[in-house]
Amino acid sequence: MRIILLGPPGAGKGTQAEFISEEFGIPHLSAGALLREEAKRKTKLGIQIHSLISVGNLVPDEMIAKLIKLWIETNDPKEGYLLDGFPRTIAQAQLMKDNGIEIDAVVEINIPDSEIMGRLLARKREDDTEAIIGNRIKVYHSKTKPLSEFFQSEASQYIRIDGLGSIEEIKNYIIHKLRNT
Ligand code: AMP
Q1: Where are the alpha helices (DSSP H) in the chain?
Q2: Which residue from 17, 91, 102, 121 has the least number of CB within 10 angstroms?
């Protein structure tokens, strides 16, 4: 099972990814976590990544695509994988295809913009300040949202869910849908 999780920041992708990953026995790759790890190492690449994350901008497409490809090759996930936070642009989705990274299902969790700010401010991550969140919402709408349409014709199963429901309700719905994939 090869799955992509889509949705705005704060929609609950990370939370649901843990459940899905456990249910289907597939590794969960968080693009943001992968980038934060690299940034923490303070390598030349890490410093570059940190300067982009800290203002809420995306890192260059080729850079993240290379990190994801490397992760898949190193982990060799035979039963599949769950990608959370990648792809985030149409160009990344295209790079993904070109590199033979295939997808069986897309899960899109949605919440309104008005909900994002409060949820992220409560999380208190370094890039969770009002100004940075504002930029991330803008980036989401201009760069990531168009992926919904892109994947509707690409993935055999496209699951949409309202992220305002309870964690349990959302989890049960997604797992039920994925079981029937
Ligand atoms: P997240 O943990 O998904 O909220 O991501 C945190 C930050 O990492 C984002 O605001 C971006 O700066 C960066 N990031 C995460 N995933 C990607 C991606 N696929 N492409 C470019 N930048 C990304």
Answers
A1: 13-24, 31-40, 44-53, 61-75, 90-98, 113-123, 130-139, 147-152, 167-179
A2: 102
**Does ligand 1 come within 6 angstroms of the Cβ of 11?**
no
Q: Counting atoms of ligand 1 from 1, which one is nearest the CA of 58?
A: 22
- Could you give the count of Cα atoms lying within 13 Å of 174 in the half-sphere of its Cβ? 33
Whether pTM > 0.90 for this model: the answer is yes
> Does residue 31's CB lie within 6 angstroms of at least one atom of ligand 1?
yes
User: Can you tell me the distance from the alpha carbon of 154 to that of 105, in angstroms, rounded to the nearest whole number?
Assistant: 9
Residue 181 identity (one-letter amino acid): T
CA of 23 to the centre of ligand 1 (A): 25
